[in-house]
Amino acid sequence: MKIHEIPLSDTKNKDIKLFELTNKAGTIVRITNAGASVTSIKTKDKNANFSDIVLGFDRPEEYINQNYLDNCIFIGSTIGRFANRIAKGKFNLDGKTCKLEINNGHNHLHGGSSGFHSRIWNPQIDNTDAGEVLVMKLNSPDGDEGYPGNLQVEVRFFLSDDNELIIDYNAESDAKTPVNLTNHSYFNLSGKDIDVLDHEVMIFADEYTPKNGDLPTGDIIPTQKTPFDFKSFHKVGERLASLPKSGYDHNLVINGEEGDLRRAAVIKERESGRILEIYTTMPGLQFYTGGHLDGSYGNSFRRFGKFAGMCFETQYFPDSPNHPSFPSCIFGPDRPYSHTTIFKFGTE
Q1: CA count, 13 A, side-chain hemisphere, 339
Q2: Quick check: helix, strand or coil at residue 101?
Q3: What is the rounded (10 degree) CA torsion for 255, 258, 259, 261?
Q4: N or C: which end of the chain has fewer CB within 10 A?
Q5: Catalytic-labelled residue, pool 110, 117, 184, 250
Q6: pLDDT for 94-109, tens place per residue?
Q7: What is the average per-residue pLDDT within 66-91?
Q8: Alpha carbon distance 211, 226 (integer Å)
Q9: Strand 177-178 relative to strand 330-331, pairing
Q10: How far apart are CA 88 and CA 99, in angstroms?
Q11: Cα–Cα distance between 83 and 145 in angstroms, integer?
Q12: pLDDT tens-digit profile of 217-256?
């Protein structure tokens, strides 16, 4: 796997960088340090034709444009400190109430308006025995958006010759703090300007966390006989009539043990023949079908309209700091954060 930096002649901010990762299969992944965001993934279809399978902006600067950040849809970005919502923007930790920014109704979402998606990360390229690795680093100081502890974050991106985009998330804090990092790429395996409703999805989850509005109730219940049962393939649009108009935006509990790398989901798009497999060490996966995309943003190929792409956000459960029965998302000096997610590309 090779990495090279793409020169940017049209950016005013000279700290913004764009990198291209390539492998022997011809797959191309582009990543910018603006939000540590995946901007493009080009893979071949069953006829060996390449096209882009994620939503992304044409120019890296667009990821930190203030108008975009004020109405952010988190296109391809690395999310932190805490992916998903925290109720009323507060939680108790060791007897102390921590207050966070409210940026989504009455709640805190995706680390706040100046979360990790809005930062310019420090990039470097590491040489390893397996090949070159793109490393993004960020320092989140004590009190950042209200979170305690100085948090040092490192996200490593590696594109293998087996067509796997491997993302390793690591973080260390000098005090206890919630940490929940994920990637927010919107996938559309068709490579065309169409929606994802005919994509077929399988998710290896016997349980999910039901919601009251946008927040989990705290229960963990079976997916069986619900629209969240994806233990066999179902089209994305097949059961939308029994969901809110915005479609899927729900956390599923991935089978197996947290910390074990296991297959979480498989996605197929029949016409192109593309397949996406997702593996993770995380306990949950937010399945979001892009129901809040409204066409406000786009690139030279398409507008990002409703259901234009879907996210598979590997994660700790939403609002975990307020639910002791959920897997613990609290990390600190005695518990560094270390998780892996793999997106494996193929055809059939």
Answers
A1: 25
A2: coil
A3: 20
A4: C
A5: 184
A6: 999 999 999 999 999 9
A7: 97
A8: 13
A9: antiparallel
A10: 9
A11: 13
A12: 999 999 999 999 999 999 999 999 999 888 999 999 999 9
Using one digit for the tens of pLDDT, what is the confidence trace for 302-316? 999 999 999 999 999
- Non-local CB neighbours of 65 within 8 Å, separated by 6+ positions: none
Considering the entire predicted model, what is its pTM? 0.97
Determine if residue 63 is left, alpha or beta; phi over 0 gives left, psi from -120 to 50 gives alpha, anything else beta: alpha
User: 267 φ, ψ to 5°?
Assistant: -125, 135
State the amino acid at position 213 in one-letter form.
G
Largest CA distance in the chain: 59
CA distances, 241 to each of 187, 208, 227, 228, 236 (Å): 22, 19, 10, 13, 11
CA–CA gap between residue 307 and residue 289 (Å, rounded): 6
Q: Is the pLDDT of residue 121 over 80?
A: yes
* 2-347, CATH topology level: Beta-galactosidase; Chain A, domain 5 (2.70.98)
Q: Tokens 């990092």 belong to which residue?
A: 181
Looking at residue 9, its pLDDT comes to 79
Dihedral sign of CA atoms 112, 79, 52, 312 in order: negative
Report the phi/psi class of residue 117: left, alpha or beta, with left for phi > 0 and alpha for psi in -120 to 50: alpha
Residue type at 28?
I
What would the pLDDT profile of 284-305 be if each residue is shown by its tens digit? 999 999 999 999 999 999 999 9
Residue 313 among the catalytic residues:
yes
Task: Dump pLDDT digits (tens) for 146-185.
Answer: 999 999 999 999 999 999 999 999 999 999 999 999 999 9
CB of 239 closer than 8 Å to CB of 227? yes
157 strand-pairing partners:
134, 167
**Rg of the chain over CA atoms, in angstroms?**
19
Which DSSP helix (H) or strand (E) runs through 66? helix 66-70
Q: What are the b/e assignments for 49-85, b being 16+ CB within 10 Å?
A: eebbbbbbbebbbbbbeeebbeebbbbbbbbbbbbbb
In whole angstroms, give the CA distance from residue 201 to residue 314: 15
Which residue carries 């690139």 as its tokens?
A: 299
Q: State how far the alpha carbon of 55 is from the alpha carbons of 32, 219, 223, 337, in Å.
A: 14, 33, 29, 28
Of the residues 145, 164, 207, 313, which is catalytic?
313
